[in-house]
């Protein structure tokens, strides 16, 4: 089976995210089996694996000043959607595998664009998605160390999902480095808002 890795940067824009995430899952089916979103949490001191996403409570405006109608992601959608991956178990298994990097789990992704993105992805992917909140790059967490930690975490998630074809591809390509432009990685920029 052929596996394709795509890295897309999504803007901090509810409407654009809704269009792009929907398109990712619709256009790439049945190839898209699991989506991993990486978001910045400027106050985080650890990598946080988010277990679930919420449908309501989006009161803060995005970069364009937009707020979702009634503060919800999908009208009549379930209040909470959880990932098929046990983030608590993943965080326990990978803790200590990358020296100097703390990994924890959470059940509250923050009710902003990353949580909104995650909810849409979980909805369209029937639970086969993950959201990883990362701290800003720093002297104690340079890009190379963060990349290694994300590799270990995502590999563990794939193993938990028991997708042998993805696991084999990831192991085969584990030394590949995909450079990001500037200080960006994945869905969200590492810059301060």
Automatic annotation (TrEMBL):
Q: Which SUPFAM superfamilies match?
A: Pyrrolidone carboxyl peptidase (pyroglutamate aminopeptidase) (SSF53182)
Query: Record's family?
Result: Belongs to the peptidase C15 family.
* InterPro entries (UniProt xref): Peptidase_C15-like, Peptidase_C15-like_sf
Going by the UniProt record, its keywords in alphabetical order are: Hydrolase, Protease, Thiol protease
Which Gene Ontology molecular-function terms are recorded? Answer: cysteine-type peptidase activity
Keyword check for Hydrolase: yes
UniProt name for this protein = Pyroglutamyl-peptidase 1-like protein isoform X2
One example of a Gene Ontology biological process annotation: proteolysis
Q: Which PANTHER family match?
A: PROTEASE FAMILY C15 PYROGLUTAMYL-PEPTIDASE I-RELATED, PYROGLUTAMYL-PEPTIDASE 1-LIKE PROTEIN
This protein's record includes keyword Transport: no
Q: What Pfam family is a match for this entry? A: Peptidase_C15
